[in-house]
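Guanidinium exporter, pasting as requested.
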Amino acid sequence: MPYLLVVVAGLLEVGWAFSMKQSAGFTRLGPSLLTFVLMAASFALLSFAMRSLPLGTAYAIWTGIGALGAFAVGILVLGEPASSTRLLAAALIGGGIVLMKVGS
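Structure tokens follow.
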């Protein structure tokens, strides 16, 4: 159950990162409010997961999912470049998440 909470918290992190981008520096009300709601929910789920998971494991998985998810949204939705260097960096982050889970 704690790993499920971390995964959902990570997905919410992707959501708030995207809505923050859409808020245009918090100048648009709707995306700005959505950013704060998703942030609060993400942090809450992460804090519940940390009741039973080690700090390093929970935080690394949460930030990894957020980073990879935001990277994917940037490429797939926002048309950001997908260079081989950026893809390699994303693969290394993904590998780190897997190793963190296996090692805990």
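Note for the archive: The chain has one domain: 2-102.
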